[in-house]
Records
---
Amino acid sequence: MEIEKVKELLLMMEKTELEEFEIVIEDDQGEIRLRKGSTGGNVLSNQIMTSPGAAVIGQQAAAVPAPASEEKAGDPETAGTVEINSPIVGTFYSAPAPDADLYVKVGEHIEIGQTVCIVEAMKLMNEIQAEVGGTVVKILVENAQPVEFGQVMFLVKPD
């Protein structure tokens, strides 16, 4: 692995809450493990699945009770909803491929652990999974739009 790629991975880890990141290269190039010190916060669950030319990391998205804001206070549709936030900086994708069905749609019921989107970061496709079950009330991000760490992507009315 080139040193520039390692530097990019280190920068990505600084911008996220990832605690550990491991890549195993199968062509005798060795392996790399990046680890940063504990921040005392929640550790995201990561599961690396390899395929030729890509890796997918399954992550649980943080389900956070939506803060009471003026916009939400006056909107009965979003009252009592829970936010699903992006756990990393990257590009939001609403489907696994351009011609595939969307992971979720407004009005659809989702289960805990269900994949709701992909956030691509540094050519890694991160499947974002719901930590809350309920009905999707709003999708706040357009397909292929950049997302920031902690940005609200979905509003869900919990079961």
---
Amino acid sequence: MKTIGLIGGISWESTVTYYQVINRTIEEKLGGLHSAKILLYSVDFDEIECYQANNEREKSAEVLGLASLRLQCAGADCIVICTNTMHKVAPQIQLFISVPLLHIAEMTAEELKKASIAKVGLIGTKYTMTEDFYRGKIEKAGIEVVVPDEQDVAYVNHVIYDELCRGKIYQESRDGFLNVISKLHAAGAQGVILGCTEIGLLVGDAKTTILLFDTTLIHARKAALFALGK
């Protein structure tokens, strides 16, 4: 079994889900008392968020790149960044290491293709929804991406940073997110990417008429399968 290097804390709320899903997948595949070999480097999210807000991409890349290098030096066979947004600096992070970085958008695109999705909605932080680093990976797989309008982008981003990353789960926000998802469905989306690792905490168990692709679950499960050589 390979050792998985997790960069967590972005936010720590969803890092918990990664740890659970990876271990449950290993248990499911191997049985008995098997669990995953994991190294975790948890960063200070406030520092990362400040770099995001100030568009200091090179600083966040250095913090996460050095975290990846430390994980590799400690024995990690792959790196998993437990967040969607910070994959905006994935190419820079990969330069710090020689082990593979398992890209969350590429793994999500694989699942979309398996489900024969030709047009997908995307919700996440404003960076994920409006910048090309994430959408480009999905579109490269031949899948059209639609995002919420400007008002809904601001709303979704607010809930993520001011509520979900702080562990606050409100029914009103759950209803609001489901409304945004319904609008994307009405715009022709055959499925919706939950493109922030905290969103599943809010709507992951909701019954909807459209397929939801929870990137946290996809990323974590595929990391476990990578560790098993599958």
---
Amino acid sequence: MPYDAELAERVRSALSGRDAVREIKMFGGLAFMLEERMVVCVSAGGAALLVRVSPDRDAELLTEPGAQRAEMGQGRSMGEGWITVDQDVVDSDDELRHWIDAALAFHAEGSGRNPGTKRKQATKKPA
């Protein structure tokens, strides 16, 4: 089953106006990357949306209707900060925005960056 093209368009619209947004097929769906880090993914089958949120907010967000721990295959939890959200929850633009905002807040904290790797910095060539 392919990802929901209408939901992908709604996510695309919600992220419009941001620089460095890129779409890539990932996790069997369409992931929206911001500065090369996944923010949300419109899933194919099952839950509608996969979001990357702060582990500090994980327990709180999992209590919301339609939210559950994301799994990478049957019974293989993706861990704290990875949440799937059911389709009927994101039918409302306000609810979709809520989940995108939660993911963007974590992204703003530097989420998804491996602390052991340094970002490439531009180097000046000798004159």
---
Amino acid sequence: MKKKKPLVLIPGLLCDATLWQAQIEEFSAMAEIMVADHTRHDDIATIAAAILSEAPDHFALAGLSMGGYIAMEIMRQAPGRVTQLALLDTTAAPDPPERQKMRRMLMAQSEKGKFKGVTRKLLADLIHKDRLQDEKLTGTIMQMAERMGRDVFLRQQKAILGRPDSRPDMPHYHCRTLILCGEDDALTPVEAHREMHALIPHSSLRIVAHCGHLSTLEDPGTVNIAMRSWLLGDG
């Protein structure tokens, strides 16, 4: 029997393994899957080091949004351990000043006891506008945030604010890389993914039509097709 390929999946901000549930179900027969814990520390480098300490010696790596930021840090710390890389709905660039300001405002509100998780108002940034009435999808997103809670939110936002610019590193990536995003991603738009694609030598770009930021939940079928091809080395 063929040995399963180790695959490490890293969720996004205020997300847990549910973000990757469709991929876990799809690939569990061909991959030994580990969903990384990105909740314990408030520094990207420390989060990445902790994941590396628990990961197999060599593994395929996929991260969405904040998970992508962590995946890029893993590529800084241990590029030789990553056999292939998938960056979903993320960006290599640091936050612009207005995004930093928004993060700090949300952190300040949460520290005053006003943590609201992902509210219906914030959902418009996370999923395509045509899915805002999908109660199963929106409920899944809000429940993940509730499970994560205020303290995790504060640690993760601090880590995101302190992340470095990953663009200078990307020309040195030597593993096959999938770059994927929703066509209508409001938080990390298509242009950010085209930039990464131009910088990473062995990369392919997949844009998911009619999809927002949380592509693995919004259109798992299309994401699974792209990831299967990536895992098998076909694209």
